[in-house]
Automatic annotation (TrEMBL):
UniProt superkingdom: Bacteria
Cofactor(s) it depends on: FAD
Positions of the Acyl-CoA dehydrogenase/oxidase N-terminal domain: 6-118
Name of this protein: Cyclohex-1-ene-1-carbonyl-CoA dehydrogenase
Occurrences of domain Acyl-CoA oxidase/dehydrogenase middle (ranges): 122-217
Acyl-CoA dehydrogenase/oxidase C-terminal domain mapped to chain residues: 231-378
Organism: Aquimarina intermedia
EC number, as in UniProt: 1.3.8.10
GO molecular function, one term: flavin adenine dinucleotide binding
The entry's keywords: FAD, Flavoprotein, Oxidoreductase
Family: Belongs to the acyl-CoA dehydrogenase family.
One Pfam family matching this protein: Acyl-CoA_dh_N
Length: 380
């Protein structure tokens, strides 16, 4: 495979790198401490086109490839994974889902605002009893002719409080199991739609995660995405691409932690020399660098598969499984390289370590990725 990046991809990567250093780094510790949503930063990312990178230009999107998107995700995640998850959900799950499967009217009304950052989106699949087991949706949408009536609760929804538009997956016909599931566009403020309290999280504390409660919410029929019964496939297809974005987020967390550890090892002295001169540290850095490069190749392979219209279920799941493990391992080691300083907030690595954990959980746990991978390789 040719992993050489084009001039344009390198320019986009560098723009994201500069932006992250200039705009995300200041205040990142404070936002994490206070669980503060990065409103200003999201606005700026919208202006730069980071919120609808892959969407069609006719609906305000950047029309860019997936490789450019993962490069941006990596750069943002090196500095602030709370910001990058907002970018990931808006791009991969919401804009891509609407652009690929929405009709012209839905794209005109919703996508044009989501691509520019004028509005933010959320993807609502998980429930108290249906996180991994996505076919077991308890939220119902009952067909009433010209509208559906939505009832139920969604959990752990990224952008839950800050979103304007929500893609909600619900069961319309229990008898039909996954073939009786649909996806709907729901607007904030509709009667009966309540946003639950914000979760107090271990990591990605700047992003807002909420439960959502739907109590007899009237959803117009024109807000259903695709044919009747398409909702489960919509969710699976969308999540398959989302996993590439989260794999890139994990890669970014790992690279961010590694770069901090490497720089620290050049200035911190112990036993009369910089700690990089001790094999105990140098070998850690060698292992980190090697695993990050391997993760990067898997992430780029998955992105290229998507760009080349190949099946990316397998490559996306492998990228997410591996990169999230690398994020966790590298972040823990980066804290170790920093010693006592790694345990305090101002050195950033403890935050990256906390942020790394979620990449093994959302958009399908590591165990779910293994289900997807094993099914795929055993079917061949
Ligand atoms: N593309 C297209 N169709 C797919 C598909 C894919 N990637 N994966 C499954 N399907 C289809 C199957 O072909 C099947 O359709 P047919 O009956 O027509 O053949 C149907 O969907 C059901 O498939 P399975 O029998 O394989 O379903 P399953 O119940 O065994 O579940 C699973 C499969 C992979 C475990 C799935 O449930 C899954 O991915 N679960 C995890 C869900 C998840 O990622 N949750 C995270 C929440 S979202 C989030 O975190 C967002 C956020 O806020 C950051």
């Amino acid at each position: 495979m040719d992993f050489k990046l084009t001039e344009e991809q390198l320019m986009i990567r560098d723009a994201a790198r500069d932006f992250a250093k200039a705009e995300l780094l200041p205040g990142v510790i404070d936002r994490d401490n206070k669980q503060e949503f990065p409103t200003e930063q999201v606005k700026k990312m919208g202006e730069l086109g980071f919120l609808g990178m892959m969407a069609s230009p006719e609906y305000g999107g950047g029309g860019m490839d997936t490789v450019s998107y993962v490069l941006v995700m990596e750069e943002l995640s090196k500095i602030d994974a709370s910001c990058s998850v907002i970018v990931s959900v808006n791009n991969s799950l919401v804009c891509w889902g609407l652009d690929t499967y929405g009709n012209d009217a839905q794209k005109e009304k919703y996508l044009t605002k989501l691509t520019t950052g004028e509005s933010i989106g959320a993807f609502c699949l998980s429930e108290p009893e249906a996180g991994s087991d996505a076919t077991s949706q308890k939220t119902t949408a009952i067909d009433k002719g010209d509208h559906y009536v939505l009832n139920g609760t969604k959990n752990w929804i990224t952008n839950g409080g800050s979103a304007d538009y929500y893609l909600v997956i619900a069961q319309t016909d229990k008898e039909k199991k996954h073939k009786g599931i649909n996806a709907f566009i729901v607007e904030k403020g509709w009667e009966g739609f309540e946003i639950g309290p914000k979760e107090d999280k271990l990591g990605i504390r700047g992003s807002d995660t909420h439960s959502l409660i739907f109590n007899d919410v009237k959803v117009p029929k024109e807000n259903r995405i695709g044919e009747d019964g398409f909702g489960f496939k919509f969710a699976m297809k969308t999540l398959a691409g989302g996993r590439i974005g989260i794999a890139a987020q994990a890669l970014g967390i790992a690279s961010g932690a590694y770069e901090l550890a490497k720089e620290y090892s050049k200035v911190r002295k112990a036993f009369g020399t910089e700690i990089m001169n001790h094999q105990a540290i140098a070998f850690k850095l060698a292992d980190m660098h090697t695993s990050i490069e391997a993760a990067r190749m898997l992430v780029l392979k998955a992105a290229m598969d998507k760009d080349n219209h190949e099946n990316y279920d397998l490559s996306g799941a492998m990228a997410k499984l591996y990169a999230s493990q690398v994020a966790m391992d590298v972040a823990v080691e980066a804290v170790q390289v920093h010693g006592g300083n790694g345990f305090v907030k101002e050195y950033h690595v403890e935050r990256l370590m906390r942020d790394a954990k979620i990449t093994q959980i959302y958009e399908g746990t590591s165990e779910i990725q293994k289900i997807v991978i094993s099914r795929s390789i055993l079917r061949d």
